[in-house]
Amino acid sequence: MESFDVNRRNWDERAGIHVASPDYAVEQFRRDPAYLSGVVRFDLPRLGDIAGLRMVHLQCHIGTDTLSLARLGAQVTGLDFSPESLKQARALAGDAVTFVEADVYSAPDVLGRERFDLVYTGIGALCWLPDIRRWAQVVRDLLVPGGRLFIREGHPVLWALDLDDPRHLRIEYPYFETAEPVVDSVEQTYVATDRSVQNATTHSWNHGLGEIVSALLDAGFTLTRLDEHRTVPWNALGGQMIADERGEYALIERPERLPVTYTLEAVRTVDPGGGREAPGPASAGS
């Protein structure tokens, strides 16, 4: 797919920049074998005990969140379409994580179907996928019956804002999924760095919260959590945001105005044969 090729070139170039930036804390990971990424630390109260679970992290980038999940005791596979990102991820994680190069839509064929207890997707992933319903089917195919999906993502309202406007909250981009991508050309990446990106063009798609939930329900999931958050783990709106003690950013003025991330959990509850509920948290006691 042409859009994937365009985005792969962009992410290949970002990989080295992100490893060198203090925002990804790669040196802390190397110095401290117990260190976890800020994203995973935020997720912990909802993620719960994952020790021993077979887990896949889709769109894992340079693997800092992936390694964090492995340090919590999960048997983790990281998947990404960027070979340069995976090169950095393997150098960081060593034998603690298995990394596989593929795009998300190819994951069931590459990794095997009904293999994992938990699918994890982190911040800034779904916007690179053109079809949210196809993604939901991929997640179902990867999970064993009763397996769980865990996402914390940028809120689709955030992705619809003009992030370059330092004064106003202004809707500029689509909230709902569109057939054609939003084509952007931005030489800066989202980390602290003085380096620019030469392959600056990207193709992205937004997906409304209702579209995401409906896609999962139609793919045979039961929704078990949907939390909307006032904080995001980077300064998404420039001078309008301030960091808290966790390194999460919220609006300085009236943060209750804007959901900037959300956490969604769902359980695969329908057997591929059709109609039969699989054992798992969603059907326990019913």
Characterization of the model:
This protein starts with a helix and ends in an 18-residue tail after the last strand. The chain has helices at residues 2-20, 26-31, 38-47, 64-71, 83-93, 107-111, 132-142, 156-160, 209-218; strands spanning 54-58, 75-80, 98-101, 116-121, 143-154, 182-185, 201-204, 221-229, 241-243, 249-251, 261-268. The model is unreliable at 274-286 (pLDDT under 50). The protein is globular. The relative contact order is 0.15. The chain has a single domain (2-268), classed as Vaccinia Virus protein VP39 (Rossmann fold, 3-Layer(aba) Sandwich), CATH 3.40.50.150. By secondary structure, it is an alpha/beta fold. The strands form three sheets. A seven-stranded mixed beta sheet has the order 3-2-1-4-5-11-8, with helices on both faces.
Give a short summary of the structure:
The chain has nine helices and eleven strands.
Keyphrases for this structure?
286 residues, alpha/beta, Rossmann fold, seven-stranded mixed β-sheet, two-stranded antiparallel sheet, 9 helices, 11 strands, 22% strand, globular, disordered C terminus
Give the biggest beta sheet: 7 strands, mixed
C-alpha end-to-end distance: 44 Å
Question: What would you report as the Rg, rounded to the nearest angstrom?
Answer: 18 Å
Level-1 CATH class name: Alpha Beta
Shape: globular
Total number of helices:
9
Main sheet strand line-up: 3-2-1-4-5-11-8
What structural class do the secondary elements suggest? alpha/beta
Helix content: 25-40%
CATH architecture: 3-Layer(aba) Sandwich
**Number of beta-strand segments:** 11
Q: Per DSSP, what share of the residues sits in E-state strands of 2 or more residues?
A: 15-25%
Query: Would you tell me which CATH topology applies?
Result: Rossmann fold
Domain module tally: 1
Order of helices and strands: HHHEHEHEHEHEHEEHEEEE
Overall average residue pLDDT: 91
Low confidence ranges: 274-286
CATH homologous superfamily heading: Vaccinia Virus protein VP39
